[in-house]
Amino acid sequence: MCLAPLFIYIEETIMSEAWSLTRDIAEVIGMFLVPVMAWVMYTILSHGKQIIILEEKVNDSLNRRMASIEEKVVGMESKIENKIDGLEKNVVECKIAINNNASNLNSIGNSISNKFDTLIDKIEDNIR
User: Would the pLDDT of 77 be above 80?
Assistant: First the structure.
């Protein structure tokens, strides 16, 4: 009796059972894994959309704040420029007033010096 066909039959049976078992395991995994993966993908996409919306809101808020800060800075710059212009004008006026006072003091000093010279000359004339 030849045992070769029996071994081939047993081997084919074992192989078909192995493939059948593998297919059954894949089906069971697919029954649970496919819905879970679908839920995970849906959740990731919905969170991604929410993150994008939040990012847009944050960017809008930052842009509004930056615009208000820029407006304040521009307002301060114009005020500072006006103050500097006023100070420059006052400094020029003070320089002019100081120069006028200095020339007046020089003329007064010259006048006093001339009067002292005249007084000294008269005193010297009276002494002689």
Answer: yes
